[in-house]
Each structure stands twice: as C-alpha cells, then as structure tokens.
Design a protein that fits this description.
Layout: E1 12-15, H1 27-37, H2 43-56, H3 61-64, H4 79-85, H5 96-107, E2 111-119, H6 120-127, E3 134-139, E4 141-144, E5 147-152, H7 160-173, E6 181-184, H8 190-193, E7 198-202, H9 206-215, E8 218-220
Parallel strand pairs: 1-2, 1-6, 2-3, 6-7, 7-8
Antiparallel strand pairs: 4-5
C-alpha cells in the first residue's frame, strides 16, 4: 500500500451493507419479516406490490422491482423504531471482519460511510449500532406526514447512484478519493468501487470475482458472524489488508 499523503480526515471508507457487512437475508427482508410478525402488513399490501410490479415490469423493470415499495404505503415511519428496539444491541449476524474493518478505519481517523440500496431508516438503525460516527447514504422513501406513500423520494441508491453519492460526499468533506476505500459484493457496486483508489470485493459474486481477478483488486471472504460490536482498535491496515 502506498504511503498516504492526505490527512486522515480526508480519507473516506465506503461500505455497502447487504452482502458486504450483512449476509442474507437483507436488512429490508428482515424488516419485512418483523412487519409480518407484528401483523403490520398483509395480503392487501402484498397485492399492491404485485399490481405495481405487473403494470411496470415491461415498461420499467427497475421501478417495478427495486423501486417498488408499495407494500409500505400508509405505514408509519415509527415502525422502524419498533423494529430497531427488537434488535440485539450486538447486531448478531453481521460479519465480524467487516465490523472490525470499520473500527480500523475509524481508529485511523478516516471518515466512514454506509452507501446502500436498503431503506435509509434501516441503514441508520444499523449505523447507530456501529462504533464511532458513521454517515449514511441509502434509499429514501417519500413521506406524507408521518407515513410512507410507497414511493421513493429520489433514486434508488445502487449502481451509478452510489458513485454520484460518493462524489457529492467528496466535495462536501474535501475527501481525496484516490486515497479512499470502498467495499462491495456485487457488480452493481462497480461504480462505487471505481470511485476510489483502494477497492475491495467482499464475498464477491462470480461476475465481480472475475473482474477483481483481472484488475488485481483485493478480495475479502468474510464469514465469521459477529457476536458483539468491538470498540475501535488501534490496529492499522497492513499492506495485505489494504485494497
């Protein structure tokens, strides 16, 4: 790893969540499971989701699938707080290696960000359980009063949207992206990975693994489930660990 010429606060570390810090099921599916268990959503909500999907699948497949949050229409955002209160503070199930890597970046004074396609309030709930100050850029939901409409407020935070978010953060904080880090698991994370100088493919899909092999990027196979969130360590990223 080359010597950084930037001060630590000018270095960013950008982490995807689902598949990178968290194994399946995704945060959103975990939230859906909570809503089902609490009888907050039912067949009518699923029906709204399916109708929207059917109407838009040919015209706009992306909106029909990942942009389709009709099952949340009319639900109060306060349900996220209920879900969060049901979580173990130790966020079991997250990859211990990923939580440790976040702690290492924070210990070195780097700015850490979660850049995720999951719902923004879910990502913020996760960030509150991680060590240190972490900023979140995730998919925002349209609100009407205190309730969701079932539509997105802006674009889904995936693909090129992640790269645009990183560039905006770089301007906001004066980040040196060539000295910054990014961690993702899917080819949809490529724009995010290509935005920085140090790229790591975490538990990569077969397509991303082929790309990382051709580009000689770092590959991380994180498998150990975290039993607790560690405090920030003073361990520095070694040449072998650094992307």
């Amino acid at each position: 790893m080359k010597e950084h010429v930037q001060s630590p606060e000018k270095i960013g570390a950008f982490f995807d969540i689902d598949g990178t810090l968290l194994p399946s099921p995704s945060l959103e599916w975990r939230f859906i499971g909570h809503l089902l268990a609490q009888d907050k959503i039912g067949s009518a909500d699923v029906g709204r989701w399916l109708v929207h999907c059917a109407r838009n699948l040919l015209r706009d497949p992306r909106d029909a699938t990942i942009g389709n949050k009709r099952y949340l229409a009319g639900l109060a955002e306060s349900l996220v707080a209920d879900w969060e209160s049901s979580l173990d503070p130790a966020i079991p199930g997250f990859f211990a290696e990923g939580i440790g890597r976040i702690a290492e970046h924070l210990a070195q004074g780097h700015r850490v960000f979660l850049i995720s396609g999951t719902l923004e309030p879910l990502a913020r709930a996760v960030a509150r359980r991680l060590p240190g100050q972490i900023e979140v850029c995730a998919t925002r939901l349209e609100m009407r009063g205190a309730h969701w409409t079932g539509r997105l407020a802006g674009e889904h935070m995936s693909g090129e949207a992640k790269a645009r978010a990183i560039r905006a953060l770089a301007v906001r904080y004066g980040l040196a992206l060539w000295d910054s880090y990014a961690y993702g698991n899917s080819v949809t994370d490529l724009p995010m990975l290509d935005s920085v100088g140090h790229r790591a493919a975490v538990n990569p899909s077969s397509r991303l693994r082929r790309i990382t092999r051709n580009e000689s990027w770092q590959t991380c196979d994180w498998t150990q489930a975290s039993a607790a969130v560690p405090g920030t360590s003073r361990h520095k990223l070694s040449p072998q660990e650094a992307p």
